[in-house]
Amino acid sequence: MNNETEIRKWLEDVMDPEIPVLSLVDLGVVGDIELKEGSVFVEIRPTFVGCPATTQMKYDIESLLHAKGFDDVHVDISYKSPWNSDMITDKGREALRKFGFAPPPKGNLIDDIDVLEHVECPQCGGTNTELQNPFGPTLCRSIHYCHDCKEAFQQFKPMN
Amino acid sequence: MNKTALKELLFKIADDQLILGHRNSEWTGLGPILEEDIAFSSMAQDKIGHSYAMYQILEELGEGDPDQVAFFRKAEEFHNSQLVELPIGEYSFSLIRHFLYDHSDFLRFDMLRNSSYELLAQVSSKIRSELKYHTMHARTWVKKLGTATDDSISRLQNDLDALMPYALGLFEKSPYEEEIISENIFGGEEELRSRWLELIAPIISKTELVLPDPEGVEPVMGGRIGKHTEYLQPLIDEMTEVMRIDPDAEW
Ligand SMILES: [Zn+2]
Q: ipTM of the assembly?
């Protein structure tokens, strides 16, 4: 008999549509999972309210669960415990780093622009960096520049 | 809960976001520098996303499909403030509007986190966090340009003087203001207005700009009850053009 833990394990294979090395589970998007009389209910917490990838995430989870033999799958967007960047797991942070993105700093999330000013460079690990733009190519990323590497890099934005 | 009052509140919030989102998206390809192009486009995407979340709550409350509601109304059925419908103008004009509007939007959602309407309270907490980036962006540029050259300072000052009456129109009271406050749906426009002034005044005072005395300014009201400038209908027509060609298109 399948249970919620097993379903969550499967969902570790569903990747973020924009960052294909990061699973939705490690991103912290997958919330409560509930099995009721053969139906599955999965709660997803969008990283950003306007994130266009949310529809794709919903679809990918549905497809996987259908493939696993569930006919009745409900993936619902929820803001009950809204996503924040501390929900990204350590494994998820590592995946972001490997992909070349600086993971968001943990805890003490943004109250000022300062936390974005000297973000750790994912290449050299130094903080001789500066914020170029709080709005990057997607809603969840900001753009920074490392003075040591002389290169721009992206950060997955902190959000509380 | 007073559903009519709640809906009126949601409509004005959503319509402000939708209209300003579309105005901001007009900067795509036109920004003074590439970074600003991206920033205005991203903020537009956020705004439209936020409005959509509001229209979805309205759907829960018995209104129509969000796309229908967003795109198939006439100007006089929109509850947005006149501030957000004005054409984008010069960059400084859009920047000052962004500064004035986003600080009020941030505070509105800050207040709505405590709404007695649970569904609204939940999404408001999320939207509030996202809006920090918008206010941060606005502040950075207002400080930068508001202390730069005589030319940039005088441009910003002109825009601030011109937009202040419209910005004060954001706080036009609802016909259901009393119910909204007494049922703890929202703390009300008066509280929002005073918190807004408290928030923006110290920021402006760190620049060479002078915030017009709000007591000496006649607010431009009417947007909340469907009175709009000549600029709104053409914008709506443009927004719906794609929808009209294929009304069943998936969004
Ligand atoms: Zn570096």
A: 0.87
Nearest to B46 among A132, A133, A139 (CB): A139
Residue B243 pLDDT level (bands cut at 50, 70, 90): low
User: How confident is the prediction for chain B on average, in pLDDT?
Assistant: 94
| Number of domains comprising chain B | 1
Q: Where in chain A is the domain with CATH 3.30.300.130?
A: 4-83
Both tokens assigned to B10 = 């949601």
Helical (H) or strand (E) element with B204: helix B189-205
Contact call for B53 and A49, based on CB within 8 A: yes
The answer to whether B35 and A132 are in contact (CB under 8 A) is: yes
pLDDT of the residue at B1: 84
Closest alpha carbon within chain A to B46: A50
Please list, residue by residue across A93-105, b when 16 or more beta carbons sit within 10 angstroms of its beta carbon and e when fewer do.
Answer: bebbbebebbbbb
Scanning every residue of chain A, which has its alpha carbon at the shortest distance from the alpha carbon of B56? A77
pLDDT band at A117 (very low <50, low <70, confident <90, very high): confident
For B196, phi then psi, to 5°, come to -65, -50
- Rounded CA-CA distance B183/B193 in Å is 20
CATH number of the domain that B45 lies in?
Answer: 1.20.1260.10
**Structural contact between residues B23 and B84, judged by C-beta atoms closer than 8 angstroms:** yes
